Amino acid sequence: MMRSTLRTDRHQEDEIEVSIILVNYNTRVLTEQCLASIFEQTKDLVYEVLVVDNNSTDGSQSAIHERFPTVILIENESNCGFGKANNIGIQQAKGKYVFFLNTDTRLLNNAIKLFYDFMEAPASIPLGCIGGILLDEKMNRTHSSGPFPNKWEPIKSQLIGYFSKKYVVTRLHKEISSYSHVQPYLEVDYVTGADLFVAKSIVEKCGGFDPTYFMYFEESDLQYTMHAHGYINAIINGPEIIHFQGSSDLSPHFSPAKRIMNDTSMFYYLRKHSRIIEYVLFRIGYFLVKLPLLIDRRVSFVGRLNYQRFLLTNK
Questions:
Q1: Domain that holds residue 286
Q2: Residues 63 and 139 in one domain
Q3: Which of the residues 194, 248, 302, 306 has the least number of beta carbons within 10 Å of its own beta carbon?
Q4: Are residues 48 and 105 located together in one domain of the fold?
């Protein structure tokens, strides 16, 4: 017997199986495309869709109201960041499971039902977060998971990067080659934040996303906590999802503003999960390997100077 695909009656909240949570900040077109794919592809599932809007100024709110009236739109008064916005969505979610989905994604099949069925099947391991093998715009497999961040990889990557631009690509190929169409799932340290499917009870048990992170590393941190509680994170076969940003970060570039945002979160993650002496040694080494960026003429001198100042002053 077919069940309704969308729960619009909020009085029967216990019937909702999956709460789909999107965080939007000035990505109106991408968000509309993502929402359209959810409603087009998701079948045989009782679900709700929540969009947490971080005070967008591109007309996102009115567009969502008009095109997707069943979506639960939560309008924040400011841009509070990715993790904190997801926490707000979790508080409103009524599903047994929550599915955190980036707005720059598009579902190509009934991916959410496949995630749900995998979680509901008898499992030999205690599952935390699961995700799929993401695709880029050319339908090639792309970054979908990774090892927990460590203190020495950023230093190693920067050093090698001065002599070879293939290091990041090689790491990606190694990651992708580890996925298999034969095995139903692959255990990983963390699933990328583009598509995280997890029981709401587990997220709440682990405290949700650490609101200290504004952007980047929050999904790694949450899954690190899950791992510490004995849960296993995994990539599963079946779901097909395009991640439009999945391969964009591979091209060499240096944006001081983006790098400062990334490094701020990285420093906090490593400080949180390291001994003090190890963290201090890491910061010294990281500063030293970044010094050559002072002569990177792709960036303004002020931008280069501001970045080095940030490395010296950020704790």
A1: 150-178+253-315
A2: yes
A3: 302
A4: yes
Q: How far apart (Å, rounded) are the C-alpha atoms in residues 286 and 311?
A: 9
Given this model, what pLDDT does residue 9 score?
43
Domain count, the chain: 2
Tell me how far apart the alpha carbons of residues 166 and 157 are, in angstroms, rounded to a whole number: 10
Give the residue ranges of DSSP H helices in the chain.
28-41, 60-67, 82-92, 111-120, 153-161, 167-177, 200-205, 218-228, 256-272, 276-290, 301-313
Written as one string, the DSSP assignment of 250-307 is GS----HHHHHHHHHHHHHHHHHTS-HHHHHHHHHHHHHHHGGGGG-TTS-HHHHHHH
pLDDT at 257: 84
**Same-domain check for residues 164 and 264:** yes
Q: Angle of helix 111-120 relative to helix 28-41, nearest 10 degrees?
A: 60
| pLDDT per residue as tens digits for the range 85-143 | 999 999 999 999 999 999 999 999 999 999 999 999 987 789 999 999 999 999 999 99
Q: Determine the pLDDT at residue 66.
A: 95
Q: Amino acid identity of 77?
A: E
Q: Beta strand 241-243 with 105-107: parallel, antiparallel or unpaired?
A: antiparallel
Residues of the chain with pLDDT under 70: 1-14, 246-254
pTM for the predicted model, two decimal places: 0.89
Are residues 270 and 188 both part of a single domain?
no
Q: Are residues 274 and 231 in the same domain?
A: no
**What mean pLDDT is reported for the chain?**
90
